[in-house]
């Protein structure tokens, strides 16, 4: 079995936000804490992809940025190759930066519009090591081969590239520094469907060739299924279900995961999963971080909670559901998991 390259233990990132609140005739300022990531734990092996899914605002990007130490965690631990990197200074982190890289959602991020592809890649290959001009030329050409881009594109400016070509240059930049762990944040979302497939294939080929590990963040569950060995589902800052992709996608145990995957038409048999038939069009209400929650955060939207007649366990503030193993490493945080 391949080695664990990244281990995340009870990671939390809370942001604070100032808000003005009207109380009586007075307007007061109040500081709110947003638990964007709350007690998240997982690990990633060499040559492995973990998909991270969940709706907008659930904390996916914050997980990615915190493990890369682009932002500091509020608490918890991040181990890279068994080394605790949680509290390293920027200077101590610098030599590790090349190992852990981010592919941005924005196709233009990191691509200086005033630089040709040649300069963008030359800069990337020489940022961590001193190379001669001849070595830089060899390396940039090798990168273009790896991401299937024509050498003629070296003289293009980013504005002269298609979306798919910009994505390939973005991927070449992270390969240039020698990344081992790549956080790919919605790497296909800004692309046409046919180009998305090419990028997915490219990322998979590169993984096989170079033994890369990906944290693959996406809204697109079909792409996540294609890319990922395992999947973690986030809801309001917490992982509510995690396991091998085939388990999570076709035998979801958490009601939220079930509803997410059910939106992929006809994938699941309702009856097989739960005697209380779930309504796929359950009333989802308004998604709101500030909604007061006690116990399970999903309770205000949970169809199982509704159908079971609001069981007290679900809203018990002392009894928030924690991830527990339901077999073969499949973990679920729910007092009444589906399929029981
Ligand atoms: N720098 C910040 N300051 C304050 N709040 C923030 C900051 N960054 C993120 N948040 C809040 O944290 C929560 C999680 O944000 P995040 O960007 O991680 O979500 P996401 O799952 O990546 O969403 P999306 O799918 O839309 O990209 C959101 O409520 C967001 O508003
Ligand atoms: S713990 Fe209760 S409210 Fe939460 S997901 Fe499970 S059934 Fe729904
Ligand atoms: Mg995001």
Quick summary of this structure?
With 340 residues, the chain is of the alpha/beta class. Helices cover 31% and strands 25% of the residues. It has an eight-stranded mixed beta sheet, sandwiched between helices. A four-stranded antiparallel beta sheet has the order 2-1-4-5.
Describe this protein's structure.
The chain is an alpha/beta fold and 340 residues long. 31% of the residues lie in helices and 25% in strands. It is built from twelve helices and twelve strands. Strands 6-7-8-3-9-10-12-11 form an eight-stranded mixed β-sheet, with helices on both faces. A four-stranded antiparallel β-sheet has the order 2-1-4-5. Strand 4 and strand 5 (83-84) form a beta hairpin. It is globular, with a radius of gyration of 22 Å. The structure holds adenosine-5'-triphosphate (ATP), iron/sulfur cluster and magnesium ion (MG). Iron/sulfur cluster is lined by residues 255, 296, 298-299, 302, 304-305, 314, 321, 334-336.
What name does the CATH topology of the largest domain carry?
Rossmann fold
Helix content: 25-40%
Number of domains: 3
Tell me the CATH superfamily of the largest domain: P-loop containing nucleotide triphosphate hydrolases
What value does the average pLDDT take?
88
What is the gyration radius calculated from CA atoms? 22 Å
Bound molecules: adenosine-5'-triphosphate, iron/sulfur cluster, magnesium ion
Distance between the termini: 31 Å
- Regions with little confidence, pLDDT below 50 for 5+ residues: 265-287
Which structural class is indicated by helix and strand composition? alpha/beta
Characterize the main sheet.
8 strands, mixed
Shape field: globular
Element-by-element helix/strand order: EEEHEEHEHHHEHEHEEHHHHHEE
């Amino acid at each position: 079995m391949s080695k664990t390259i990244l281990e995340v233990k009870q990671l939390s990132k809370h942001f604070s936000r100032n808000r003005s609140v009207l109380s009586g005739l007075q307007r007061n300022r109040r500081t709110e804490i947003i638990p964007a990531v709350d007690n998240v734990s997982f690990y990633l092996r060499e040559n492995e992809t973990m998909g991270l899914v969940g709706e907008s605002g659930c904390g996916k990007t914050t997980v990615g940025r915190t493990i890369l130490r682009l932002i500091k965690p509020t608490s918890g631990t991040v181990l890279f190759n068994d080394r605790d990197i949680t509290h390293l200074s920027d200077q101590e982190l610098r030599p590790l930066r090349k190992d852990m890289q981010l592919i941005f959602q924005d196709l233009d991020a990191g691509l200086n519009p005033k630089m040709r592809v040649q300069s963008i890649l030359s800069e990337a290959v020489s940022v961590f090591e001193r190379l001669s001009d001849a070595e830089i030329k060899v390396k940039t050409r090798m990168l273009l081969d790896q991401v299937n881009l024509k050498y003629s594109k070296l003289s293009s400016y980013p504005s002269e590239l298609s979306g798919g070509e910009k994505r390939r240059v973005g991927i070449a930049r992270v390969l240039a520094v020698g990344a081992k762990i790549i956080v790919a944040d919605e790497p296909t979302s800004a692309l046409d469907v046919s180009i998305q497939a090419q990028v997915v294939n490219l990322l998979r080929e590169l993984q096989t060739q170079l033994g890369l590990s990906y944290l693959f963040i996406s809204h697109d569950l079909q792409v996540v299924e294609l890319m990922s060995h395992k999947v973690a589902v986030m809801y309001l800052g917490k992982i509510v279900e995690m396991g091998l992709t085939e388990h999570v996608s076709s035998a979801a145990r958490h009601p939220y995961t079930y509803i997410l995957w059910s939106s992929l038409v006809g994938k699941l048999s309702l009856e097989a999963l739960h005697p209380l038939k779930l309504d796929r069009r359950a009333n989802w209400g308004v998604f709101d971080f500030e909604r007061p929650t006690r116990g399970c955060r999903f309770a205000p939207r949970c169809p199982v909670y509704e159908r079971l007649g609001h069981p007290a366990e679900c809203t018990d503030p002392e009894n928030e559901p924690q991830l527990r193993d339901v077999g073969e490493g499949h973990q679920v945080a729910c007092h009444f998991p589906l399929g029981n």
